[in-house]
Structure of SAM domain-containing protein:
Amino acid sequence: MWLEDINLGSYRQIFKEHGVNGEYLEGMSMFTTEQILRFIRQCHMKWGDFITLCKELRRIKGQQKVHRPWWAPPCLSVVFVKVAKRNRQSRIVSLKLEQ
């Protein structure tokens, strides 16, 4: 699993116990600060591990291919792909730490 690849394999069991799956992680981009803090406490995560998880989710989302909808004419495919990429990137979980 990719958690081992980013040295977060120790959270696999905790994620499983709390029902954290791909769909849940996808929805994290809409989490409020309270929900993020609850997730971190619930999974006993360290801040650094949470940031690593967010960076990996961002990387994974960036690699996903975007295709034009089947109903869109080919001449508009560039427009649909650009908008879809921009929308997806805006939903990505990102933490900005103020110094």
Notes: The chain has six helices and no strands.
